[in-house]
Specification:
Blueprint lengths: L9 E2 L13 H5 L8 H10 L1 H7 L2 H7 L2 H8 L2 H18 L6 H5 L8 E4 L15 H16 L3 E6 L7 E4 L5 E4 L11 E3 L8 E6 L2 E12 L2 E7 L21 H21 L6 E5 L5 H14 L3 H10 L1 E4 L10 E2 L1 H14 L4 H6 L13 E2 H7 L3 E4 L2 H19 L7 E2 L6 H4 L2 H10 L11 H9 L3 H29 L4 H10 L5 E6 L15 H8 L6 E6 L7 H16 L6 E4 L4 H10 L2 E4 L11 H6 L4 E4 L5 H4 L5 E3 L9 H25 L8 H17 L2 H12 L10 H8 L2
Parallel strand pairs: 2-3, 2-10, 3-9, 10-11, 11-14, 14-15, 16-17, 16-19, 17-18, 19-20, 20-21
Antiparallel strand pairs: 1-6, 4-5, 6-8, 7-8, 8-9, 12-13
Helix pairs in contact: 2-3, 2-6, 8-28, 9-10, 10-11, 17-19, 18-27, 19-20, 19-23
Length: about 725
């Protein structure tokens, strides 16, 4: 059963002239259910394959279909049948009577929804609201919360320019392109008041008020509400606050996070939503707790201590990085500028208010105002995103849990990240599952033992052929992207043909794709260039490597690394064996994780909090070759990929890199390459396929977002009052 379906009035702004027989295409286009339904995406592709491949956005597609094409489709029995099949599947999924895990687990739940705050959301490449791992994880969380029936509302920001598009020039320099998006062509709708007017939320910002319109992204039955400052009611200098995701300017970033936190609380109030639980996904939204405390003090006359206690009791906080530079912190003078009035309303001196953001309150030296420190103090439960990350976070931040709870045994917990399988699984593997397991295969998480049995029973040859089909699509995609990039660089037709010919689908392909941050060590595999050259250029067993990823605009070291790598791609003995794909996004990621042979991950341990790209690869039968860090510490079982090194951490970074690189070369030379090229009489690498099946059985279930969501509900949320008898009603009554 589905609980608490919220009716939020909104209007779409696109002009789609859809014939009446296909009228529900509009409804389908505006629900991100299509982003994980292969049949729905095939339906949109059937409408106009060229436009679908160009936009991969059903709203943009429907706007641009001409009358002649609609007339042809109305005469097509195949299209009508396909349309009706997809609509029936959509209706079954959206039905209030659909059985869900949450409904079966908590049959008497009658409370309000959980509200999930995040600064970015990655649902699809057609909705440019994400940068990388945090946003993709948030998108997968919303999808799986919906699938499992957890009552949820999400809150974020609507970025007019999103995150940058990466263009790499001929010398490897990264350029940052910020495109102004037309939201009328996005699968989003504008939220209205009950009277049909545009909803505007007033947010205090320092010495003034600003206004935000609200957009809604519908993810199955989960509404994602996004605040947008680009409205005429604001001063021109305030309108760009929600322009760029992870804007470089520190004051602008603080303004964004005030809008997210304080504006988000006021938005939910305006819509009459009284959350049972507030989940802060990273510290960007922590000012929501400050706003709730202030409102409780003003509306009830309670003390700061009582309001603080009530706010903490219904707030949980997820930490996503062990890298200190990744924790948002601001100069004290900047915080004073924007919270001078706020601290007075809380009855605090400025000194006491600032101390709430000190990571180390007992240290005499000047400290910045840390949003992570404030969030830990204002939450009843805090968690890392893998077991190892939980341990590292406990060492770094655990002292604040003790101070906040006055409990010497209080610890920072952990829930290991997972991925939304339907979003990331390739269509050929999906088709294989439907053929041998059945249409109900997406409920694999219900019976892990049966799932393992069914995967082991898959025919080796057909599983390998499914992988080869997905790899062929990756090769075709890679050729097109290389042609586009190198033609822009001015390469001659003959040079372009040579680049195309170098993309050899019979080679072993290794993928390395992620943010180009120093600790992820994209250059580690080049530590011994001659040894790598010998591995890659073996004429009998060639190896090719494709890199992709962006460096943040302010990360000069990351951009230098891209430039250095690009020089190797073009001007070394490894030319034709090393490739770089520019503008890494969700579309590029799907192509890579579905079609590559090996997924490489070699961060500095323990700096990878979890990582999920390797999980996405593994659920497609791709072999992980990884340092024992993040999720791989829990995922590796000796048969589902390869572990690089034993996890020993050395004090000297240079020595660490050399030890790890040598361990990587050893595994490639002695295990990975031989296993890939050892074929039986059918051309199937039997030992490799055995490892593929081990990955599919062990990782698909244990590292799915379905498992992750269940862990959040039963392990994190359950530590609050939310699931206790009568708690939802009591919480709703007391929270402003």
């Amino acid at each position: 059963m589905i609980f608490n379906q919220l009716q939020i009035r909104s209007v779409t702004l696109s002009d789609c002239n859809i014939p009446p027989p296909f009228a529900r295409l509009q409804e389908l286009a505006y629900n991100l259910w299509w982003s994980w339904s292969a049949e729905a995406r095939r339906l949109f592709s059937h409408i106009h394959p060229v436009l679908w491949n160009l936009y991969r956005n059903p709203v943009e597609l429907l706007i641009n279909v001409d009358r002649e094409q609609w007339n042809a489709l109305q005469q097509s029995d195949d299209f009508l049948s396909q349309y009706q099949k997809v609509i029936r599947a959509f209706d079954r999924y959206m039905s209030a009577d659909r059985s869900t895990w949450f409904g079966e687990r908590f049959p008497n739940y009658a409370g309000s929804p959980v509200v999930y705050f995040c600064s970015e959301f990655g649902f699809s490449e057609s909705v440019h609201l994400y940068c990388g791992g945090l946003g993709i994880l948030a998108g997968d969380t919303c999808k799986s919360m919906d699938h499992l029936g957890v009552p949820l509302v999400a809150v974020g920001l609507m970025y007019r320019c999103g995150y940058f598009e990466q263009v790499v020039d001929m010398d490897g320099s990264q350029h940052h392109i910020y495109r102004t998006h037309d939201f009328s062509r996005f699968p989003v709708s504008l939220v209205q008041t009950q009277a049909g007017r545009e909803l505007l939320i007033k947010v205090p910002l320092g010495d003034r008020d600003i206004h935000c319109r609200v957009w809604k992204v519908q993810v199955g039955r989960v509404p994602v509400l996004l605040l947008d400052t680009d409205v005429l009611q604001n001063d021109p200098s305030d309108r760009p606050i929600t322009s760029q995701l992870y804007v470089t300017g520190r004051e602008m970033r603080l303004c964004q996070e005030i809008v997210l936190g304080i504006g988000g609380v006021r938005l939910l109030q305006e819509l009459g939503i009284t959350p049972a639980l507030w989940h802060m996904n990273e510290g960007h939204s922590v000012f929501l707790a400050v706003e709730r405390i202030r409102q409780m003090m003003e509306s009830t006359g309670c003390s700061l201590e009582d309001a603080w206690k009530d706010a903490r009791a219904t707030t949980v906080f997820t930490i996503h990085t062990p890298v200190m530079a990744g924790h948002e912190a601001f100069d004290l003078e900047l915080v004073k500028k924007y919270f001078g009035l706020e601290k007075a309303r809380l009855g605090l001196s400025m000194e006491d208010f600032l101390r709430l953001g000190f990571a180390f309150p007992d240290r005499p030296e000047r400290q910045p105002f840390s949003l992570t420190a404030l969030a830990i103090r204002l939450s009843s439960v805090a968690n890392g995103v893998s077991r190892l990350h939980g341990e590292v976070t406990q060492k770094t931040w655990g002292h604040l849990r003790v101070l906040a709870t006055e409990d010497n045994n209080a610890r920072i917990d952990s829930v290991t990240n997972g991925v939304h399988v339907m979003t990331w699984l390739g269509t050929d593997i999906q088709d294989l599952y439907e053929q041998y397991i059945g249409l109900d295969w997406p409920n694999f998480w219900k019976n892990p033992d049966e799932w393992r049995r069914l995967i082991q029973a898959l025919p080796d040859q057909e599983l390998w052929e499914a992988h080869e089909a997905q790899k062929a699509r990756l090769m075709s995609f890679l050729k097109k992207r290389l042609l586009t990039m190198y033609s822009r660089h001015g390469n001659s037709p003959d040079e372009l043909r040579r680049w195309q010919a170098m993309v050899d689908p019979k080679s072993l392909w290794i993928g390395f794709a992620r943010r180009f941050a120093a600790y992820k060590r994209a250059g580690l595999i080049f530590s011994d260039f001659q040894r790598l050259r010998a591995i890659c250029t073996n004429p009998d067993r060639p190896v090719r490597i494709v890199f992709s990823g962006k460096a943040h605009p302010s990360d000069r070291e990351g951009q230098d690394l891209i430039r250095h790598l690009f020089g190797i791609v073009q001007n070394s003995e490894l030319k034709g064996h090393i490739f770089f794909l520019e503008n890494y996004d969700m579309y590029v990621a799907r192509r890579l994780v579905q079609g590559i042979d090996v997924w490489l991950n070699n961060p500095v341990r323990p700096m990878e909090a979890s990582g999920t790209s390797g999980i996405k690869a593994a659920i497609n039968g791709v072999m992980n070759v990884s340092i024992p860090d993040g999720w791989w510490c829990e995922g590796f079982n000796g048969e589902n990929g390869w572990q690089v090194g034993d996890g020993t951490v050395f004090g000297d970074p240079g020595h660490q890199a050399w030890v790890d690189a040598c361990a990587l070369y050893d595994i490639l030379e002695k295990e990975v390459v031989p296993a890939f090229y050892d074929r039986d009489e059918r051309g199937v690498p039997a030992k490799w396929v055995k490892r593929m099946k081990s990955a599919l059985t062990s990782i698909t279930h244990d590292f799915s977002a379905a498992r992750m969501v269940r862990d959040y509900v039963e392990k994190i949320y359950a530590q609050t009052d939310i699931w206790k008898a009568e708690a939802p009603r009591r919480v709703s009554a007391r929270i402003a």
